[in-house]
Each structure stands twice: as C-alpha cells, then as structure tokens.
Amino acid sequence: MISLRGVRKTYASPAGPVEAVAGVSFDIKEGEFVSILGPSGCGKSTLLMMLAGLEHASAGTIEVAGEPLTGPRRDAGLVFQDATLLPWLSARDNVLFPIKMMRLEREKYVARAEELLRSVGLGDFMDKRPRELSGGMRQRVALCRSLIHEPSIMLMDEPFSALDAITRDEMALVLLDLWARHRKTGVFITHSIREAVLLSDRVLVMTRRPAVVVADVAIPFARPRDESIQDTPEFNAIVAQLRGMIEHSIKAAA
Ligand SMILES: Nc1ncnc2c1ncn2[C@@H]1O[C@H](COP(=O)(O)OP(=O)(O)OP(=O)(O)O)[C@@H](O)[C@H]1O
Fold first, then answer.
1. Is the pTM of this model over 0.90?
2. Is residue 119 situated within a structural domain?
3. SS3 116
C-alpha cells in the first residue's frame, strides 16, 4: 500500500541545509498498522508529512497504492498532536468538515459521523462545541474526522502526546477499537514504546537526525487485542527490546 525507496529530505535554513531524513526505505501492506519510534527531532514528522503528500521528498520515491505520490491524497486521513477543531462548530460538524472541504454531499455522511462519534463514546456530545469537550474528547473527534471520508490510510503524528497519562492510555484503547472496526492502513508516530507495541503490527525504529530506519520489529500478538496484553511477559520483553534499540541508536549517533 505504501512503498518508500531511498527517501531523503533536506530543509533549507538560514544556517545552511538541514538533513532531516537520510535515505529511508520500507513497505507497508494494506491493512497493516505500523508505528514509527525515534528520538525527538529525528525526522518522524517530516516523514509523515511526506507520506501525506504535504512535503516533497528531496530524493527517492514514495508510492501509495502503486502510484507515485505527487501531492496530498484524498484517501488519507490525518491526525495531529493538536485536535485542531474549529471552535464555532459542533463535534458533529467538525467531523463532517472534510466532507464540506471536498464538496461532497453532507447528508450522505451525517449518519456515518454520528456512528463514528458513538463508537468513540461521544454519542451524548455531538452537539457540543470544542470548548465544552475535554482534551481526550477533542482528540476523539479528530480521530472520527480523519475517518469520515472512508480513507484507506490513516496517518497519525503523536496524536496523544498532548494528553495526560491516564487519558492517553484510554485513547490508545479507543484507537485500538476504532482500528479493529475500520482496518485502515495505519502509520502512527509516537514517543511511547508501550503505545506502539499495543497498537502495531510492526514497529520501525529511527536513528537521530538525519534519520534512517535501524530496526523493523514485528509485533506478534493476535488481534483483536485488549489492554490485558500489556501485562504479559511477552509484551514487556518486546518493550524492553525496543527500548534497548532506541538507546543504542541514540548512543551510536552521539
Ligand atoms: N520546515 C522546516 N525547515 C527547516 N528545518 C526543519 C523544518 N521542519 C523540520 N525541520 C528540522 O528537521 C528535523 C526533523 O524534524 P521533525 O519535526 O521531522 O522531527 P520529529 O522526529 O518529528 O521530532 P519530535 O519527535 O520532536 O516531534 C529537526 O531538526 C527540525 O528542526
């Protein structure tokens, strides 16, 4: 579904070129959920922006569904760290906002918006404005908004990192459930190793900037999964293995 070959990104800056991503290659199969872990500032967001078609690669190729990526794609749903909801719209209308932007027929999507909101526990909050919702609720709305137009890919850049620890754990379970229902191809950027292991089929580990992928770890737990897998020795062994890889990649680059 997604294929990267030798993808590089160099930004121009007043202090000279900044090489953010230095030759990344990997494939993601249809329906696979892949997390990307790496040290802060290593180029993860840059990689996601390139996958979204919002940044051009300086070199290399990105293909989505067999076609070279040349710009933003309609069949991708995006979720960022901030929910970025429009304050004057209700939760329902925020979810429906991409439909308006794409000039699709609103009435065809209202039932889907409401079903999505119910599925993340916001059935009683559809008419609320963002200021009447908690941070976790706002991010639930953002998840629903990313799915409203039935995209085949979900691209998520640290969607839970602005939330408190308890809400964050809750949101990982909301996403696990949402993903089980909709089975999109998912790319998830996170700093949380546990979150990555809980949610993913594979975890890619990146080095410090300029980033390359140093490890590609399969997560063997069967689906559907629930939170109880986090208490198993197997889960904790993978978390420890990934933590070791990240520490090693930071030291190696230092
Ligand atoms: N538009 C830009 N112009 C110049 N440099 C940039 C630009 N965007 C990002 N960078 C630089 O590229 C590098 C990678 O940034 P990026 O945001 O992709 O990292 P990240 O891994 O997502 O970071 P974090 O985990 O802290 O969110 C950083 O050194 C950053 O300063």
1. yes
2. no
3. helix
Q: Does a structural domain hold residue 120? A: no
| Domains of the chain: total | 1
Whichever domain contains 12, its CATH number is 3.40.50.300
Residue 167 lies in a domain: no
* CA separation, residue 122 to residues 98, 151, 160 (Å): 19, 21, 17
Q: Distance, CA 102 to ligand 1 centroid (Å)?
A: 29
Q: Is residue 240 part of a domain?
A: yes
Question: For residues 54 and 206, is the Cβ–Cβ distance under 8 A?
Answer: no
Specify the amino acid at residue 57.
A
Mutate to test the pocket of ligand 1, among 19, 40, 46 (most ligand atoms within 8 A of CB): 46
- Domain with 217, as residue range(s), is 1-75+157-162+187-254
Distances (CA, A) of 224 to 16, 173, 245: 48, 11, 27
**Ligand 1, atom nearest to 206 Cα:** 21
CA–CA separation, 180 vs 33, rounded Å? 10
Is residue 187 within 8 Å of residue 51, measured between CB atoms?
yes
Whether the CB of 44 sits within 6 Å of ligand 1: yes
**145-181 tens-digit pLDDT:** 999 999 999 999 999 999 999 999 999 999 999 998 8
pLDDT digits (tens, 9 = 90+) for 95-107: 999 999 999 999 9
User: How far, CA to CA in Å, does 92 sit from each of 44, 89, 126, 182?
Assistant: 31, 8, 5, 19
**Residue bearing the CA closest to ligand 1, atom 30:** 41
- Between helix 110-119 and helix 165-182 the angle, nearest 10°, is 130
